[in-house]
Amino acid sequence: MTQQTPYPSAVVPRNGIGITGFVLGLVGLVFSPIPFVGVVAWPLVILGLVFSIVGLVRVKSGKATNKGLSITGIAVSALGLAVCIVWVFVFNAAVDEVNTELNRTAKVSYEVTGDAKNVDVVYGEVLNPVNETVPALPWNKEVENKGFYKGGTLTVTTSETGGSVTCKITVDGAVVSTKTASGEFATAACTGK
């Protein structure tokens, strides 16, 4: 009886790391252009890049056979990372623009004209209005405002004697709102931008 020696079994290359890198990079690339959700993409594309590079190294050493998938994983991970970096610059530019506009001071002119007597005038920034009773028109007030609504508000209400009133808000030399009302207890309300 002859004894046969078994052939050594061939080691099957494992492709898991390269596949993992590709999947992470692809999911990260899909999430990366979505505002706010794209924050999730950062760790996905970085891990996808690392796993794909490790997968490519394993292919070169003969421990894996998924060279194409590892290279594709590197490409989609790098692209996803580039999109994430672009979003950082876009988001920072938007925040800087909003901050600059919020802190900018605008010259605002509130003006009321008409023939009404004893009108109530409410004007100023939206969260900090000023109230005055004006015995005769025309009336004008120059102020400086900050915030989103630099023009603030201007509301004019006639008394029981009626008459007509026109309100006008001018911000940095440009008229942004004009309204007219007439009659008893009529209200003209202007809102600046």
UniProtKB/TrEMBL annotation:
Keyword Cell membrane: yes
Pfam families according to UniProt: Mycobact_memb (PF05423)
Residue runs in coiled coils: none
InterPro entries: MmpS, MmpS_C
Keywords on record: Cell membrane, Membrane, Transmembrane, Transmembrane helix
Transmembrane domains' residue ranges: 12-34, 40-57, 69-90
Intracellular or extracellular location(s): Cell membrane
Record bears the keyword Cell membrane: yes
Family: Belongs to the MmpS family.
Name of the protein described by the UniProt record: DUF4190 domain-containing protein
UniProt organism field: Amycolatopsis silviterrae
